[in-house]
Amino acid sequence: MTPDIDTSRRKRTAFFVSDGTGLTVEAIGHSLLAQFRGQSVEQVTLPYIDSDTKVTQVLRRIEAAAEESGLQPIIISSIVSDQIRRQLHQCSALMLDVFESYLAPLANLFGTDPAHTVGISHGIANGQRYSERIDAVHFAMDNDDGRRTREFERADVILVGVSRSGKTPTCLYLALQFGLRAANYPITEEDMDSTALPKILRPFQHKLFGLTIDPKRLMSIRQERRANSRYASPEQCEFEVRQVEQMLRRAQIPSLDATELSIEELATRLMSQAGIERKIS
């Protein structure tokens, strides 16, 4: 007698296939699949699929995933080449084609054919914008953890919060994606003698934005960095978060709770709440 198969542990695979970096189709795929939280889906990004050999390898991988799981895979594709798209359509996966869905209606609207050129969206089409993005990244790195407070005057935003609350990755994301000069300043125990803003931040109060975090989540993050230390203790995390939240409220600094938010969500919500516009698109 054949044993019953535990279908609850089977995982469907979604392949994000691109002949470029894969960043665009990956973002679209993540957004689509996020709407189906009850589904177990392994997500695989396959960039630079631009030859018959590579397509053949992809098709084998997709069919292997289907055979292993017993579930129909998903392809979300941003392939420019008509030939490669036709090859992908021949496999057993559910095919969601970004270009087929959107290019034809746009071509009808504009009255012209699309360029069918790979890598346009991520190329250096505008040298000035690219330079601004790199300058913003350098600014974020140079002004991480309050290293160069003398440059705060040039900042578009200054993130404040306890250590390990997500300030650095958020600053880098703001710089890379939006060209914003984002600095950050960690509120340390020395700053917590009172709930007033540290003197060094007061001239820039209009640029400040706070990040807070659940103490238990903070403790978990700090344990990975300094296990069993006072820095990572429940009491210390609780104290620091409480003091910083009081400080932000007293100074009327806008803030976000970073506990459940991704870096992408933190950055975009921060910009919306603070009324900051992107500098590059």
Could you characterize what this model shows?
The protein has 281 residues and is of the alpha/beta class. The protein is built from nine helices and eight strands. The strands form two sheets. It has a four-stranded parallel sheet, with helices on both faces. Strand 5, helix 6 (167-178) and strand 6 form a beta-alpha-beta unit. The longest helix has 18 residues, at 52-69. The model is unreliable at 1-5 (pLDDT under 50).
Order of helices and strands: EHEHEHEHHEHEEHHEH
- Indicate the mean pLDDT: 89
What structural class do you assign from the helix and strand content? alpha/beta
Percent of residues in helices comes to 40-55%
Compute the number of strand runs: 8
Annotation field: number of helices: 9
Task: Report the uncertain regions.
Answer: 1-5
Shape: elongated
What share of the residues does DSSP label as strand, in percent?
5-15%
**First-to-last CA distance:** 61 Å
Q: Major sheet: size, sense and barrel closure?
A: 4 strands, parallel
Strand order of the largest sheet: 2-1-3-4
**Alpha carbon gyration radius:** 24 Å
Explain the layout of strands and helices.
Layout: E1 12-17, H1 23-33, E2 41-46, H2 52-69, E3 74-77, H3 82-89, E4 94-97, H4 98-110, H5 127-142, E5 157-161, H6 167-178, E6 182-186, E7 208-212, H7 215-225, H8 234-251, E8 255-257, H9 263-274
Parallel strand pairs: 1-2, 1-3, 3-4, 5-6, 5-7, 7-8
Helix pairs in contact: 5-6, 6-9, 7-8
